[in-house]
């Protein structure tokens, strides 16, 4: 999708591996050649087959993810309130994707402590986002620490819980139990 009509031709060239192949197929040039940057953005046949299988099972996959998300949300609500931890918030007018489940910890120290506690129980939890302005590319474009203090504070406190299609109810209960053991 392109929101600037002036970029349509260039986007086609990028998609066509930097060539004017599309123009060739429309009869606008007699041969095509490499004229700009580009790449192959198409998945391999094997990846396309995996994607198709996932799309065919989308409703089942989403149902499992929804159940896990709701389980975490229900089981951790009181614990989170007691410990000053924020759970995900989805406004009523938004459709939930069930992409991940996270905790917004009170501090970086609390996040690191909970990560260490869960790791000692054999549970992988991770912090999630490095603010873009602090990434290698962001710094190349002038990003500096303290440019976006709210973003940096949230990044320091965000903790992502195990959340994948095949996480069993028993494993989810183990995660919740271990999290509750950490509480203050």
Low-pLDDT stretches: none
- How does the major sheet shape up? 2 strands, antiparallel
CATH class of the largest domain: Alpha Beta
The helix fraction, in percent, is 40-55%
The structural class is mainly alpha
**What's the end-to-end separation, in Å?**
48 Å
CATH superfamily of the largest domain: Aspartate Aminotransferase, domain 1
Count of folded domains? 2
Describe the structure.
The chain is extended and about 70 Å long. It has helices at 8-15, 21-25, 45-56, 58-83, 108-120, 136-140, 149-157, 169-182; strands at residues 102-104, 158-160. The chain folds into two domains: 5-42, no CATH class; 58-182, Alpha-Beta Complex (Aspartate Aminotransferase, domain 1). The chain has 184 residues and is mainly alpha-helical. A two-stranded antiparallel sheet has the order 1-2. The longest helix has 26 residues, at 58-83. The N and C termini lie far apart (48 Å).
SSE arrangement:
Blueprint: H1 8-15, H2 21-25, H3 45-56, H4 58-83, E1 102-104, H5 108-120, H6 136-140, H7 149-157, E2 158-160, H8 169-182
Antiparallel strand pairs: 1-2
Helix pairs in contact: 4-8
